[in-house]
Amino acid sequence: MEPHGTRGATRTPPNFPGLGDNRPVTLKISIDAGSSTAPYEQLRAQISDQARSGRLPVGHKLPTVRGLAEELGLAANTVAKAYRVLETDGVIETRGRAGTFVAAARDAAARQAATAAAAYAAEARRLGLTRADAQAAVTDALRAAYGD
């Protein structure tokens, strides 16, 4: 029996208030077999980029491991490895038999970055670096990572 007032209504997933527009979303993945980057890492990076950019909205249900493996011509273990890393990174979340969904990745990424920054600051201070030296090290690392 339906709860009063829900007949015919579009239901928003309980963990994602404000969503429910039910816009069609397609997971677009391309695996380059000739790349030196492992297929699981290519898959992980593409899903992560799409989730962080909003092309895969929070709450979007991802294909099953087996389904995506078949679609991409990969081993199920390869897709499972990518999903495990994505879950560890906070990009996706598995809800048991309900499936795997895009999590609020931007929030998770910001939390992880803040944690890493705090750990770096504590380590730099423990090593006796001045604030200026610690900031210079971060600037150099960011320049190297982002190619600036």
From TrEMBL:
InterPro entries hit by this protein: Tscrpt_reg_HTH_GntR, WH-like_DNA-bd_sf, WH_DNA-bd_sf
Q: Which residues form the HTH gntR-type domain?
A: 37-105
Keywords, alphabetical:
DNA-binding, Transcription, Transcription regulation
For region Disordered, the annotated ranges are: 1-24
Q: Which Gene3D superfamilies match?
A: Winged helix-like DNA-binding domain superfamily/Winged helix DNA-binding domain
Source organism per entry reads Streptomyces ficellus
Q: Name one GO molecular function term.
A: DNA-binding transcription factor activity
Task: Identify this protein by name.
Answer: GntR family transcriptional regulator
Q: Which domain of life is it from?
A: Bacteria
Sorted alphabetically, which SUPFAM superfamilies does this protein's record hold?
A: Winged helix' DNA-binding domain
